[in-house]
Specification:
Largest sheet of chain B: 5 strands, parallel
Strand content of chain A: 15-25%
Oligomer: heterodimer
Order of helices and strands of chain B: EHEHEHEHHEH
Largest sheet of chain A: 6 strands, mixed
Mean pLDDT of chain B: 85
Largest interface: A-B, 24 and 27 residues
Low-confidence stretches of chain B: 1-5
CATH architecture of chain B: 3-Layer(aba) Sandwich
CATH superfamily of chain B: Response regulator
CATH topology of chain B: Rossmann fold
CATH architecture of the largest domain in chain A: 2-Layer Sandwich
Shape of chain A: elongated
Helix content of chain A: 40-55%
Order of helices and strands of chain A: EHEEHEHEHEHHEHEEHEEHHEEH
Radius of gyration of chain A: 32 Å
Radius of gyration of chain B: 14 Å
Strand content of chain B: 15-25%
Number of strands of chain A: 13
Amino acid sequence: MTTLNLLGVDDEKGMRLGIKRALESYAVDIPEINDRVTFDIALAETGEEAVDMIREQTPDILLLDYKLPGITGLDVLNQTGDFSGKMLTIMITAYASIETAITATKRGAYDFLPKPFTPEDLRHSVRKAAARIIIARRASELEEANKRVRFDFIRVLGHELKAPLSSVTSYLHIMKDHICGSDIENYDDMIGRSLVRLKQMNKLILDLLDMTRIESGQKTRTLVSVDLNAAVDQAVELVRNEAADRRISIHTDVPDNSVITADQVEINMVLNNLVSNAVKYNRDDGSVSISVSRDEDVVTLKVQDTGIGMTQEEAGRLFGDFVRIHNARTKNILGSGLGLSIVKKLAELYGGTVSVTSEPDRGSTFTVVLNDSEIPAEVAEQESVGNND
Amino acid sequence: MTTKHGTKTILVVDDDPDFLIQQETILKAAGYDVVTACNRVEGEARLTEQPPDAVIADLMMDETDDGFILCYAAKKKDPAMPVILVTSVASETGIEFDAATDEERSWIKADVLLAKPIRPEQIVAELKRLLKD
């Protein structure tokens, strides 16, 4: 619910009363943004009075008669030019000549209401102005919010990129100062850690590129019939060595001929992120279960592990950008903090969701729900444009 | 850097495991005992279990102000305990602060504020100064 201030300026008492009566209990619904607007009405008899009132408290909407006894409506606009960006002016005029209209528009009038008009004409004009004001306000609020999100993202990104650099720099300082003696072997662990941090930094940059491609919508999506049996197999193949080293067994339960209409690369990214996490955050000798099921058009992917798990509070933060859970159990596990955020964004591309249930030291289950629908028109169009290239 | 200091114990708290390895290497080579913790809660537990002679803490751990809180806990336990706050975020956050004056030290409960990466001789020199070795 929003209240807009409206100032009506007319020298005829009947007109002023008419404006008040037509608008004081009038409410405009703006369904696009789910808002309802009412009006707080002030009235002025002369142009001079109107100028003072505008300077005192600029109205959102100015209903301004052109012909006034002292200064004219145009003079009012001239004298309040500084405030023209803050209010929408509807000019009331009996002389709707093209010259008047052009001059008034130059001075900042937004609309014209020719005399004589009915209460319905007045409401119609005010409704248009109100919708314009509210939508412009909402757009600027959204733009502000976007700027803030973007700024926060870049700030955190700066920090995440700086951390590995600073870490490698510190190891090099230790080596430069020969703190562990002059044998290069004494520094093997530090060199190993430096390489791990640089590899992690590289992964962060790759994840970041993936994510910006998804978010900008520039990633070329090719929706085909994706074989989920094969997709799960390739995700398992990628972690096979690490799982074998730590004696983690992997079980899959994917019905034969499971398919989904999707982008192959996106489905692989979802599965790879979840399956590699399930191994990474598991305990030695643990297990990972991957299952796929379908209920009509809804495909559910579940990845369950017997790993370190997390508290509810930790689970609540998990899907944000750059979120990593820091505790004694995770301190030696590296990650970019973007993997699950990417999974969430990808799931949303399919009108889907990702969720987690978890218990510390018992394990976690990640569930991704995807809609297997017809190819959306928008994407089909993009594809045909792409094909013409 | 092999002088012994009557083996004073330094508590190092950071969520970056490499920072812990680095400080442990540098400080042990300089003759200190080192205890580490990877978050604020663990750090506070170490303060009680094994009161150190000095604390080195990162500012931004799970929460952006965990380092401040830990410094506060250390100073509350022992106002004379030297505390070094380490950060790589001072410039990114746009928050300008330092622990150079008494006024700043009265609200930042740290004796020194250092920006990462820290050079080995820098951290050892600061500790020597604060522990009056």
